[in-house]
Design brief:
By secondary structure, this protein is mainly alpha-helical. The chain has 8 helices and no strands. The protein has helices at 2-20, 23-43, 49-69, 74-93, 102-123, 127-150, 154-179, 185-205. The two termini are 12 Å apart. 37% of the residues are buried. It comes from Vibrio gallaecicus. It is a multi-pass membrane protein. It is found in: Membrane.
């Protein structure tokens, strides 16, 4: 309980730093949040192969977020985000057994296509990166959803919600950056981003 309270407070500190433009504060709390999530995953969860993949995703996410906050090596931090999503996806795919449910993939794909065409007029040269990011997030949500459908437990359900929140966080970031500014975007984007990571880690310890 106290560890999750610390994660919540650190996330609030990151959101507050983003709101007021305090880069050092925001970065410090972001790194601290990821560090706490890694400690929780390694100490409070049963250690399986997929646990290491989620921890790897947290480590790479911390690196990606650091580069993004400092606005350095834009291409590299984009690649890091993709690698982090791949790590999370691998963790969920490893938990799968049995046949896949294709209607979930079709539903996620259809929703993503609608979102893509809403953003298309503003994307210009960013079409390719957005498509790649979208594909990674769709298959992440699909993988976590498959785990939930094949093994409908509280933990798998929370993992699926976490993956969906991560997808929505990326969508909110894209809408805020390329279409029209979202009121209090620092709350919706940063807050949902850390909520997604927290939910994914929670799926390990429940």
């Amino acid at each position: 309980m106290w560890s999750w309270l610390a994660v919540s407070l650190a996330s609030i500190g990151a959101v507050s730093g983003t709101k007021h433009g305090f880069i050092a504060q925001s970065l410090l709390y972001k790194i601290f949040t990821f560090a706490l999530l890694i400690i929780i995953a390694m100490t409070q969860a049963s250690i399986y192969e997929h646990t290491y993949w989620i921890v790897g995703g947290l480590v790479v996410s911390a690196l990606a977020d650091t580069l993004h906050t400092l606005k350095r090596k834009r291409t590299f931090h984009f690649i890091c985000f993709l690698v982090a999503q791949f790590c999370y996806s691998k963790a969920f795919w490893l938990q799968l057994s049995g046949e896949m449910v294709w209607w979930l993939f079709a539903l996620l794909l259809a929703a993503s296509i609608v979102a893509f065409f809403l953003l298309l007029p503003q994307l210009d040269k960013l079409v390719f990166p957005v498509v790649i990011m979208g594909i990674m997030l769709i298959q992440l949500s699909w993988a976590s959803g498959e785990v939930w459908l094949t093994s409908p437990t509280l933990a798998s359900g929370i993992g699926f919600v976490g993956a969906c929140v991560l997808l929505l966080s990326a969508l909110a970031y894209a809408l805020n950056s390329y279409r029209s500014p979202i009121r209090r975007s620092y709350v919706w984007v940063t807050g949902s981003y850390f909520l997604a990571h927290g939910l994914i880690v929670s799926s390990l310890v429940l």
